[in-house]
Amino acid sequence: MKKEVEQEGFYLPLVEQFYSIQGEGFHTGKAAYFIRVGGCDVGCSWCDTKFAWDSKYHEMTHINSIIQGITDSGADSVVVTGGEPLMYNLDTFCRELKKLNIKTYLETSGSHKLTGIWDWICLSPKKNLPPDDSICSLAGELKVIIKDEGDFNWAEEYRAKVSHGCKLYLQPEWSSFKRIMPLMVEYVKNHTEWSISLQSHKYMSIP
What would the pLDDT profile of 49-81 be if each residue is shown by its tens digit? Predict the structure, then answer.
């Protein structure tokens, strides 16, 4: 019975939850409540949240407990991130949030079937485990991490798959910032449909 309840999305492997400021992409600078779930089968070598990869190290937490933290904070929007959140059924979690008129934002690599009800989807495709093409047309934002010069081609591959109105961002991989940023600046100057996203929360010293 417990396994069935987990499959229905009543429990999630909660890594952390906190109220903060969005530091990346289209919603940079806006307040949001962050839910980080454990488990990821993408495994990027440069990932800055490797502590979230193995879900067995994170307690399966009932969504009611998570939602209580959200409502107590006074937040009007929730960002679900990971790990890879689409490893889990998020239908029930989102449905309960929508009952409370809370906006739902998803950050995903798109490597699993989409579940949940979302006001905004940020798709960040990874070469290790490319996304299902079906999610591309639903993304409001495409955010591609740039570590090496070849990643620009990867970004263009997915620009061709997202919808016309999708916001396009290139974001430097943090440890490669000094080396890759001059290349990104020149690339965006020559490909003006793209914008640069920075991890501004790291500059603000907030989670």
Answer: 888 889 989 999 999 999 999 999 999 999 999
Record the tokens describing residue 27, joined without a space: 């919603």
Tokens read off for 200? 């501004």
What is the residue extent of each domain of the chain?
A: 2-204
Q: Could you tell me the pTM of the whole model?
A: 0.93
SS3 readout for 42-101: CCCCCCCCHHHCCHHHCCEEEHHHHHHHHHHHCCCEEEEECCCHHHCCCHHHHHHHHHCC
Cβ-contact 115, 87 below 8 angstroms: no
CATH class of 2-204: alpha beta
